Amino acid sequence: MDRRIALSVLALVTVMLALAVVPLAWLLGAREQTSFRADAEASGRTVASVAEEHLNDHKSDAPMLALLDRTQAEGDCAAVYDSTAAVIARTSCGTATESGVRSLAVAALRDARTHLRESGGVLTVATPIGETEDSVGVAVLTRSAAPLHNRIAAVWGWLALIGLVTLLAGAAVSVALARWVSRPLHAVDRAARQLGEGTLQVRAPVGDGPPEVRRLAATFNTMAARNETLVHGHRTVIADVSHQLRTPLTALRLRLDLLAGDVDQDAALELAGAQEEIARLSRLVGGLLAVARAESAVPAPVRVAVDAVVAERVTAWEPVAAERQVSLGCRCEPGVEAFLGPDDLEQVLDNLIANALDAAREGGRVRLDGGRAGDAVRLSVVDDGPGMSKAAQAAAFRRFGNPEARGSGLGLAIVHRLVTANGGTARLEDTPGGGLTVVLDLPSAPPGS
Predict the structure, then answer these.
(1) What is the CATH number of domain 2-150?
(2) What is the C-alpha radius of gyration for the chain, rounded to an integer number of angstroms?
(3) Are 427 and 437 in contact, with CB atoms under 8 Å apart?
(4) CATH number of 211-294
(5) Which side of the chain, N or C, has fewer Cβ within a 10 Å radius?
C-alpha cells in the first residue's frame, strides 16, 4: 500500500509538472525568439536610418561607418547597399555580403519592405532605406542566433531543474504521506493477526495516522477488549460447570456402587441400569465441555508434521481396531506440514477415528489419507460402514444435530470447531462403495502469510 500511495501521488505531481512546465518553457522560448527578432529588426532600422542621411541627404558617411564599427563590435555584421544592390559600406566580417544575403537585399529593394531569414544559426534582416515607395538602398544586418539558443537552453534547463526539485519534493511528500497513512494500518493489521492467533490482550495504537484510521484502531481495540472479556468469561463458566457437574456425578456413581453390593438381584439390575445412565451422562457432560472448550479456544498456530501425527494416532488406535476386527491403516504423503493449534490435530483425529471404528462393521476397513492439495493440506478419514443420509450429513457438524449418531453426537461438532478455528474446512462425502468420508482441508501456511 505504501508503494501504491507514493506512486499515485508521484504520478499526479509528474503530470501536473508536465502540464505546467512544458507549455511555460515553450512560451518563454517563443518570447525569446520574438524579442531576438525584434531587437535585430530595431538594429537594422537604426543602420538604415543613419545610412539614409548619407544616401538621400548626401551627408558625410562618417556617422554610418562609425555605426557599422559599433555594430561589428557588438558581434553583428552589417552592409549598406545602394539602389542598384551595390555595396557602398560594410563591416569587415563578410557575412552580410554573401550571395544568399545579397539576394535577400535585392528582394527587399524590390518589395520595399523588411525581409527576415534564419538559416544556419544566423538571422538576417534586410531593411529598405528611405521611403517605402522610393527606396534608395538596403541595410542588411546579420546576427548569430547562438545567444538566442543559449538563452532558450538556459530557460529549459532552469525549468527542468525546478521540475526535478519539485518532483523530488513531491516524492518525499508522497513517501511521508504513504507512511503516515499506512503505518497505523499496518499496526492494526499486526494486532488483528495476533488477536486471531490467540493473543487476546493485544491492542492497536490509536495516536497515529488520519482520523479515520485512528477511529478504526479505537474500534478494533473495543472489539478486542470485548472478545477478551467474552472468551475469559466463557472459560471461567466452563471451568465452573466442569467442577460443578462432574463432582456430583462421581459422588452419585460411588453411592450406587456401594448400594449394588447390599441389594438383591432385581435391585442390582436396576442399579446397573442407573449406573449405565450415569456413565452415559458423564460422557455427555464431557462431550459438551469438550465442545465448549473448542468454541472458546483461540489457537496460536504452530507447525505440525501431519504424517507423523497421523501415524502416531493410527498406532494408538490399532489395539481398539484389532479388538473390533477392523482394519485400520494410513497412507500419508511424507513431509506434509500444517499450521494448527497445539494438540488440535490429535484431538480431531481421535474423534474421527473413534467415530469411524464405531461405524465400521466387523471385518471392515478404516483408512486415513493425507497429502497436499493446492495451498492446503487435505486429510481424509474413510470408512466402509453404513454411511449417513444427506440430511444427517447436513446437520452432522451441529451439536446433537445428527439423529443417526450412536454416541453423544458431539464428536463431529468438536472436529468442525477445531478445524474452522484454525482456518481450515471440514466436509462429509459418501465413500465409493458405501460408507462415509470426512475430508479436512488444513492451512499449510501461518495466518497472514
Answers:
(1) 3.30.450.20
(2) 49
(3) no
(4) 1.10.287
(5) C
User: What value does the mean pLDDT take over residues 240-268?
Assistant: 71
Say if CB 127 and CB 101 are below 8 A apart. Answer: no
Distance CA 429, CA 427 (A): 7
Contacts of 337 (CB under 8 A, 6+ apart): 303, 304, 305, 306, 377, 444
Residues 205, 220: Cα–Cα separation, whole Å: 10
In the block, residue with C-alpha cell 494408538? 316
Q: How far is it, in rounded angstroms, from Cα 373 to Cα 219? A: 37
Beta-carbon contacts of 401 under 8 Å, excluding residues fewer than 6 positions away, are: 395, 409, 413
Q: Which amino acid is at 327?
A: S
187-215 mean pLDDT: 83
191, pLDDT greater than 70: yes
Q: Give the whole-angstrom CA distance, residue 94 versus residue 185.
A: 75
Beta bridge partners of 378: 371, 441
10 Å Cβ neighbour count for 246?
Answer: 14
Domain residue spans of the chain: 2-150, 211-294, 299-443
Out of 3.90.180.10, 3.30.565.10, 2.60.120.680, 3.40.50.740, which CATH number does the structure's domain 299-443 have? Answer: 3.30.565.10
**What is the pLDDT confidence band of residue 441, given thresholds at 50, 70 and 90?**
very high
In the 3-class helix/strand/coil scheme, how is the chain assigned residue by residue? CHHHHHHHHHHHHHHHHHHHHHHHHHHHHHHHHHHHHHHHHHHHHHHHHHHHHHHCCCCCCHHHHHHHHHHHHCCCEEEEEECCCCEEEECCCHHHHCHHHHHHHHHHHHHCCCEEEEECCEEEEEEEEEECCEEEEEEEEEEECHHHHHHHHHHHHHHHHHHHHHHHHHHHHHHHHHHHHHHHHHHHHHHHHHHHCCCCCCCCCCCCCCHHHHHHHHHHHHHHHHHHHHHHHHHHHHHHHHHHHHHHHHHHHHHHHHHHCCCCHHHHHHHHHHHHHHHHHHHHHHHHHHHHHHHHCCCCCEEEEHHHHHHHHHHHHHHHHHHCCCEEEEEECCCCEEEECCCHHHHHHHHHHHHHHHHCCCCCEEEEEEEEECCEEEEEEEECCCCCCHHHHHHCCCCCCCCCCCCCCCHHHHHHHHHHHCCCEEEEEECCCCCEEEEEEEECCCCCC
To the question of pTM greater than 0.85 for the whole model, the response is: no
Buried b (16+ CB within 10 A) or exposed e, 411-436: bbbbbbbbbebbbbebebeebeeebb
